[in-house]
Amino acid sequence: MNSGPQNEWFEKDYYKTLGVSKDASDAEIKKAYRKLARKYHPDANPGNAEAEEKFKEISAANSVIGDPETRKQYDQVRAMGGGARFQAGAGGAGAGGFEDIFSGLFNTGGTGARTRVGGYPGGGPDLSDLFGGGFGGGGGFGGAGGFGGYQQGPQKGGDIRSKARLSFTEAIEGATVKLNMPGGKPLTVRTPAGVKDGQEVRVRGKGKPSPNGGQPGDVILTVEVAPHSVFTRDGNNLRMTLPVTFPEAALGTQVSVPTLGGQPVTMKIPAGTPSGRTLRLRGRGIDAKSGKGDLLVTVEVTVPRNLSAEAKKAVEDFAAATAGEDPREGLQRRAGEA
Question: Is the pTM of this model over 0.70?
Answer without folding.
Answer: no
